[in-house]
Amino acid sequence: MPKSVNPVYLVGAGPGDPELITVKARRLIESADVLVYDLLVSDEILKLASPDAMRIFAGKAARNHHMPQDEINHLLVTLAGQHDVVVRLKGGDPFVFGRGSEEALYLAAHDIPFEIVPGVTAASGCAAYAGIPLTHRGISRSVQLMTGHSMLGRSVDEDINWESLSDPETTLVIYMGLINAPLIARRLIEGGRPEATPVAVIQDGTTPRQRTVLTTLKALPEDVNKAKIRSPALFIVGEVTSLSKKLAWFDATDSQVLT
Known about the structure:
Layout: E1 8-12, H1 23-31, E2 34-37, H2 43-46, E3 54-57, E4 60-61, E5 64-65, H3 69-80, E6 86-90, H4 100-109, E7 114-117, H5 122-129, E8 142-147, H6 156-159, E9 170-175, H7 181-190, E10 198-203, E11 211-216, H8 220-226, E12 233-237, H9 244-247, E13 256-257
Parallel strand pairs: 1-6, 1-7, 2-3, 2-6, 8-9, 11-13
Antiparallel strand pairs: 4-5, 9-12, 10-11, 10-12
Helix pairs in contact: 3-4
């Protein structure tokens, strides 16, 4: 590959609201020759690109990958040699459960320069739009982020040290946990979290379709079914979620307290 090849830009598109993308992300999207984008990138953000820009959908949902990761990696290397501005557009932040680091490592292994453009991750974006502070003096002093689906062929049960997630003064944010909600709730309780621990479930966070369900760890599996929650959905576990009743500002009419 020629030394003069331009960088591939791994860009975070934020959690959904197109006004939450960064100035740099917007500039790159508007100047892109080709966009390789994921499922959670909104149409409003894609419309920022030039009508002449090539758009390649590489979206992923749980257990349904439109394009395998190896194929995406190879595609980025190929496109880098053919176009001036290649933007790999990911929902949220590319380095928070976005596999951006895997793509960056592959590019580096093939001598392709790259830049990482951070985005607002779902944990902070969705929490803020639901009126939930991830930390709050006297309630929560730290935050843990985890993915709720299996990795590398192992089960979620095998992947996670559940006891390490039991600190009541730590807010736990679970990405992609909807499919495994019953297991997650049971194992967190077995690991030391009280059954009555408040939980917020946020669907389509930061968008006009946002819904927030306030429940408890024990009732989580039943309540996500009762409310017909669908992906994308984020779980926030901890006492801070109770503040949503007073601080919700974006979707108060759609919020539901089920327990």
